[in-house]
């Protein structure tokens, strides 16, 4: 039998781990930690969109983000609510 080797980056592993933890917490009824995401790159990864889309949504004031100096920050729960309400759809 031949072995298959897959090389994945740390960011992908972190995203998979975070999503898995969230799914397991929801199934068990334990609340998921409502942490902050810092930076457009992390926000984009969380909502599964390009970073340029995050900047466009921020510019149009259509995404629930805050500013910490020049850095964008977002609360996971606010992004989840926004997504459930159809956030990100083009008007």
Give the class from helix and strand content and strand pairing.
Answer: alpha+beta
| Strand elements, count | 3
What is the total domain count? 1
Summarize model confidence as the mean pLDDT: 86
Taken from the alpha-carbon principal axes, the silhouette is: globular
Helix content: 40-55%
Low-confidence stretches: none
Radius of gyration: 15 Å
> Which sequence of SSEs, written as H and E, runs from N to C?
HEHHEEH
| Tally of individual helices | 4
Report the biggest beta sheet as strand number plus sense, adding barrel if it closes.
3 strands, antiparallel
From the N-terminal CA to the C-terminal CA, the straight-line distance is 52 Å
Strand composition percent: 5-15%
Placed side by side, the strands forming the largest sheet appear as 1-3-2
Description:
With 91 residues, the protein is an alpha+beta fold. 49% of the residues lie in helices and 12% in strands. It has four helices and three strands; from the N terminus they run H-E-H-H-E-E-H. It is globular. The relative contact order is 0.13.
């Amino acid at each position: 039998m031949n072995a298959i080797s897959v090389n994945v980056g740390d960011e992908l592993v972190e995203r998979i781990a975070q999503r898995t933890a969230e799914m397991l917490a929801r199934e068990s009824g334990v609340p998921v930690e409502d942490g902050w995401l810092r930076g457009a790159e992390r926000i984009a990864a969380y909502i599964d969109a390009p970073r340029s889309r995050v900047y466009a949504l921020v510019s149009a004031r259509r995404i629930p983000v805050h500013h910490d100096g020049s850095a964008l920050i977002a609360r996971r729960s606010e992004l989840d609510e926004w997504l459930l309400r159809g956030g990100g759809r083009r008007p």
